[in-house]
Amino acid sequence: MKGPLFYSKILLFGEYGIIKDSKGLSIPYSFYNGALKNDGNASEAALNSNQSLKRFASYLKDIDQDLVRFDIDKLTDDVNAGMYFDSSIPQGYGVGSSGALVAAIYDQYAFDKITVLENLTREKLLKLKQIFSAMESFFHGKSSGLDPLNSYLSIPILINSKDNIEATGIPAQQSDGKGAVFLIDSGIIGETAPMVSLFMENMKQEGFRNMLKNQFIKHTDACVDDFLKGDIKSLFKNTKQLSKIVLNHFKPMIPQQFHELWKKGIDTNAYYLKLCGSGGGGYILGFTEDFEKAKKALSAHKLEVVYNF
């Protein structure tokens, strides 16, 4: 048995803000992917994945039946026969490793599933998001459901607010464009749950809440609008502001050795960095109007281009 491939995702804008109803924009990233397999692989990774799937299967037994029903018997049989999730998606990197797994399990074992081929109304998207949120909570304690949604549908998703999401088109990439969105590997695995609880702790302070509403969300929303409209000039102005706000108010989410590089980008305008997912490690997202210039400035790091302007 080999299931279909599910891709990783990148939340271009909206990390943390979407918890408090900012806009967000999430795109599939096909460089990494994963699939369910049952081919007798006895490697350590396959065995660990199989153990994790056993725990996940028993968690899904107790999921709200009114929300989603699974063929638990078939899932249990497959897991007992050695099924695992074969994935190239790095874990703890903010590119949706658990999201792809959740999408694969839903695709294979859910009864009455909403399929990608249907006319995806807002109601259906919200229902899927709700199902995926309940499923992915097994991995993160609290999940928006957006990562699996992106992975399952494999199309860009625009988050207008918690209850208003839609599939969207993004401007076509310019293969010869100088500008780029890129990933930097921090070399550290990030843990989502502690970062989110730190954020929730900060939310108890009025000053932090005001900053989030009046600065962070304002510039996040503007970045999403600029990106979708293809207004590059305004996009970089707002991304610079966002990068500053994150450096000033989300420092614990930025790995220590990147604080200087982060500031250097803002000071020189060679690139602007932002969190990719919850931070604390994993990937860092970069935006630049001149990729060659950014590459020189960040020559000690390996950059992966995600999108060309």
UniProtKB/TrEMBL annotation:
Domain of life: Bacteria
One Pfam family per UniProt: GHMP_kinases_N
One annotated GO molecular function: kinase activity
Keywords: ATP-binding, Kinase, Nucleotide-binding, Transferase
Organism from which the protein derives: Tamlana crocina
Domain (GHMP kinase N-terminal): residue spans on this chain: 81-147
InterPro entries: GHMP_kinase_C_sf, GHMP_kinase_N_dom, HddA/FKP, Ribosomal_Su5_D2-typ_SF, Ribsml_uS5_D2-typ_fold_subgr
Protein name as it appears in the record: Mevalonate kinase
